[in-house]
Structure formats: structure tokens, C-alpha cells
Amino acid sequence: EAKQAGRNRFCFFEQSMNQRVHEHLLVLQGIDQALAEHQLFLEYQPVFDLQRDVISGAEALVRWRHPRQGLVSPASFIPIVEESDRIEALTLWVLTQACRDLRDRILPRAPGFKLSLNVSGVALQSDSLRDRVLETLSREGVSPASLRLEITETTMMRDIEKSAETLKLWQQAGLRILIDDFGTGYSSLSYLTSLPIDGLKIDRSFISQLQQSSQGPVVDAILALSRTLGIETIAEGIETQEQLQLLRQMRASHGQGYLLGRPMPVSQLRTLLEHPQPLHHSGIMS
Ligand code: C2E
Ligand code: MG
Ligand code: MG
Ligand code: MG
């Protein structure tokens, strides 16, 4: 019986390993084609100035419309791509596309708009990416001051000194640097002193538990810390009016979440910028 169970377990393990390997191969074989054949596209989630009740910017989020798998979530393919050298091509594709949308479709409607892009921590290790990011901005004619780079820590940064060097160069060029998912296992307080940081994005896990329990003081403390350091904060994943009110009471400056607006095509973002809705009516936007 035990032998039987052991065998089953082994089979199960073997199968899930195979599945994982298979999934990895599918993604890595498919990503070049995705880039070449326009299977990737961007959606934009509005970021609100919580004190002034206006949209101050948006976060660009990549999507993959796979010819056979359908819509694939970045949460499933980014971790695989960032373990390969293809992360560089993907990052530059996102940057180029975002620059064009910003320049042609967003900035004409909203001059002070700030667009956030996700850059995976592993991509910071690449010398060529470091230079090509700035080259892309000047080629596309977009001012670095309109962009923010969210450093996502899906895997720990391999070389923190190298990362700091790259980020410093980008910051000197006028880009602003945010730490994404702040407070989770992947980010750490030590980044605040070892990296050039302009802001923190407070992870959704803190915001979703804001009412229930001990998370309130934690968010309050992150906000206080940011004020002391003179950096900005963006609360992620605001889903309820209660969370929004609590964050306002804590004097949080910026926020995003399904309550305020879901990720949307650029055309829809443009409409929203042309016909702004007061925040307390914003439930109808999501
Ligand atoms: P992230 O940068 O932390 O992005 C926020 C994620 O939370 C997005 O998921 C967004 O759709 C989702 N979200 C926003 N508001 C809410 C809310 O109120 N409730 C809930 N439950 N979720 C909310 P998405 O688009 O699936 O992206 C997942 C992750 O994939 C991102 O997390 C980011 O780490 C990564 N990613 C997305 N686009 C890119 C990209 O262009 N480059 C890189 N390197 N990573 C990307
Ligand atoms: Mg992000
Ligand atoms: Mg995040
Ligand atoms: Mg995340």
C-alpha cells in the first residue's frame, strides 16, 4: 500500500515537472514569434492622485494574445521570460510601445501625465539594456520625466551593486525609479539605502487586509517612512471604498486598483482623460 502511494506520488511529481518544463518551452519558443507577430499588447491601469481626485498617470501592463492558448497572464509568462535573455527584447518592446502611446495619444490630452513601466530586476544586469533604454527614449522623442520605472522583484536582483549603477544612470537621465510590490518577500528595506529610489508601491496584500487587522499600522508606517525619506508612495490594489477612505485618512498620496479603474486599452484611457469622473463616483468606472 505504502509502495503504491509512493509510486503515485512519484508519478504526480514527474508529471508536474514535465508540465513545467513543457510550459517553459512553450513560452520561450513562443515569445520571439509573439514579438514579431504582434501578439503582445499593452493595457493601462490609471493611477490616481488621492488627495486631488484626479488621474495623475497609469501603469502599463503587458498582455499576450497567444494563437492557441488565448490570453496569457504576465504573471505566468514574465517569470519564465526573465530567466532568459529574451527579457531584454520584451522590455524594449514594452518601452517602445508605451512611448508611442504616451507621445501620440496620452500626453496631448494630459501634459503632466506620468507613465509607469515594469522592469524586471534581472534585466538590470544587462549593460546593453541600460544604454538601449535611454536610446529608445531619445529615438521616440519622449522625455524621461514622463516615465517611471517600477522595479519588479519576481526574482532577487542578482547583483545589487550593478543594479544600483544602472538605476543611478537612468535616474540621472531624468527617469524616476519605484520599487514595486514593496513589503513582500521579494523587496526589502535594505533597498532603500542601496538603490536610488524615488518611490514605493505598497503591495496589494497590505491594502486588501487594511480593514481587518494589523495591516493598518504597517501601511501607516510605510507612509511615514516614505514621507521621512521624501519619496512618493502608490497604494496598489484598492478594491473597496473603505480601503480608499482609510488610505485618504492616512494621507496616502497616490493609488490604483479595480475600484478606481481596471487595466484598459489606451483608447479607453484617453476617453477617461477627456471626461474625468470624480473619485467618489468611480465605482462605475471599473
Ligand atoms: P504588478 O506590477 O504588481 O502589477 C499589478 C497587478 O495587479 C496587475 O496584474 C494588475 O492588473 C493587478 N491589479 C491591479 N489592481 C488590482 C486590484 O484592485 N485587485 C487585484 N486583485 N489585482 C489588481 P497583471 O497585469 O496580471 O500583472 C502581473 C504582474 O506581471 C505585474 O505585477 C508585473 O510584475 C508583471 N508585469 C506586467 N507587465 C509587465 C511588463 O511589461 N514587464 C515586466 N517585467 N513585468 C510585467
Ligand atoms: Mg508594477
Ligand atoms: Mg505591484
Ligand atoms: Mg506584482
From TrEMBL:
Q: What domain of life?
A: Bacteria
Domain EAL, first and last residues per copy: 24-277
Report the protein name in the record.
GGDEF domain-containing protein
Included range, full protein: 422 to 707 of 707
